[in-house]
């Protein structure tokens, strides 16, 4: 059928009501958002953002309400979609934006694709990877993997992807989203090593929309975390420690979930796998820890400094 491109949509969307089908690849995926309120009677108040791209550039796509439980888990990073009967809206100004792996990619930030269950009912098709043709010109998923030896030189809030062997995982903890709020964030601390430094990655992992992965992080698993943000303690603390925290678009993968993921082709991921093959499992197991209370960042060693 006759297809359109994201670039063409941006130029012509105001003058059209009906749009031609789109063929896009998912490059980023946000966590699922629940926006229900007691006074509003909505069946499925869910929403999820994706960043999708074709040969012309990248645009946000929003999955609404009952389409979320139906499609959210099938729409993975790297999935190719054929979309028809979607709507175009001006972008929501306050949403978060992931850092693209390809810095040259054009971003269409003024509008977003809206997928709804009615008015009109969007038609979504997933194209199997083996049927995707090179002449479609869809971009590959690109990553920004860093090694532990590179981390200390990165600026605060820098976006990156990491892979490591888990040596410590703490218990799940809760933090209030806002003071006096009934809502909590669920998170846990983890350490992962990659052989490039004596220091581990210190990871603050908030529960994303992947409970099956979040609950099964354990020592000796290969952990991949994407779209992590660097937190540099910017005070003059001589014992400052750099750590990484999840963002709204972070995805987490553990052993058993890596097969078929686009990052398996990345050079730094391949280097890490080579390093793990040179390690003795028995030696590494002796150094692993699980559970317990992990105060971080560490408080100063005297009350005066506190």
From TrEMBL:
InterPro entries: NA-bd_OB-fold, RADX
Sample GO molecular function, one term: single-stranded DNA binding
Annotated PANTHER family: RPA-RELATED PROTEIN RADX (PTHR14944:SF2)
The protein's name: RADX protein
Naturally occurring in which organism (per UniProt): Machaerirhynchus nigripectus
């Amino acid at each position: 059928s006759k297809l359109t491109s994201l670039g063409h949509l941006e130029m012509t969307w105001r003058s059209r009501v009906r749009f031609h089908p789109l063929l896009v690849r998912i490059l980023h995926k946000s966590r699922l958002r629940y926006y229900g309120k007691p006074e509003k009677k909505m069946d499925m108040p869910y929403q999820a953002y994706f960043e999708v791209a074709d040969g012309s550039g990248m645009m946000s796509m929003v999955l609404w309400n009952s389409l979320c439980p139906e499609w959210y888990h099938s729409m993975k990073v790297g999935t190719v979609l054929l979309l028809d009967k979607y709507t175009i809206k001006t972008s929501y100004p306050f949403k978060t934006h992931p850092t693209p792996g390809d810095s040259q990619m054009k971003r269409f930030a003024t509008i977003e694709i809206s997928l709804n269950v009615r008015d009109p009912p969007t038609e979504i098709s997933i194209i199997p990877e083996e049927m995707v043709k090179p002449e479609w010109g869809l971009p590959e998923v690109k990553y920004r993997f860093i090694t532990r030896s590179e981390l200390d030189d990165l600026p605060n809030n820098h976006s990156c992807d990491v892979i490591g062997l888990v040596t410590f995982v703490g218990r799940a903890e809760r933090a209030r989203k806002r003071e006096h709020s009934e809502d909590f964030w669920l998170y846990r601390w983890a350490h992962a090593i990659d052989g490039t430094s004596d220091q581990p990655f210190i990871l603050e992992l908030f529960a994303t929309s992947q409970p099956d992965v979040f609950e099964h992080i354990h020592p000796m698993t290969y952990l991949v975390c994407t779209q992590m943000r660097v937190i540099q303690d910017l005070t003059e603390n001589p014992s400052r420690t750099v750590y990484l925290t999840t963002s709204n678009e972070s995805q987490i993968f553990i052993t058993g979930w890596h097969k078929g993921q686009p990052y398996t082709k990345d050079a730094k991921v391949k280097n890490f796998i080579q390093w793990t093959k040179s390690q003795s499992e028995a030696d590494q197991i002796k150094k692993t820890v699980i559970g317990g209370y992990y105060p971080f960042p560490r408080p100063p060693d005297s009350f005066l400094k506190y």
